[in-house]
Amino acid sequence: AGAGAEEIGRWLSGRSLAVPGLDTTAYLVLRLAVGAAPAGRVVPTVFHDVPGMVARGEADAGLLIHDAQLTYGTYGLREMLDLGGWWLEETGLPLPLGGNAVRRDLDERFGTGSVEEVGELLSRSVRHAVGHREEGLRRIAPMTVGIERATLERYLDMYVSGLTVSAGRAGRASIEALLRRGYEAGLGPDPGVIDMVGGDD
To answer: What is the pTM for the complete model shown?
Structure first.
């Protein structure tokens, strides 16, 4: 996967790449995989426009997130690199897709236990989503018109898993590895100490 990623980095030189934002986890992981920054023209756009741009020839390649990771074939596109697979091979860890952050000074500003309370509210929300799968599928259906039920279920499984409920040691290690590698590559600030509120067993 490493050699393939480097080869793709060379291929991108002089070509255009549509990305779902410059400050996204996806773009950071791509830059780590192909070597710092793609040398071609990077075109930031709304994530759901990326596959269409590539299909119309407005970009030579695209960085896909969300359901487009599963539906790119309907645009006549093909996969060049699976960044989740690359990350797993590189680190042996799951790829962190997103997270919630809270300010460290909430306890000072709003009283002792405020950080834990926010963490518990977020955790309850995730546990509700996991426990009410059909409701979740109904809610995302209007935003994913034309996507088959099986694809929707696979999409939901990608984003709502045991790691969503509790990141645990593997989740913490993955977040730390991603932010540390980004910092060491000059692609982000020093993350310092990462504290996790709940779910860190």
So the answer is: 0.84
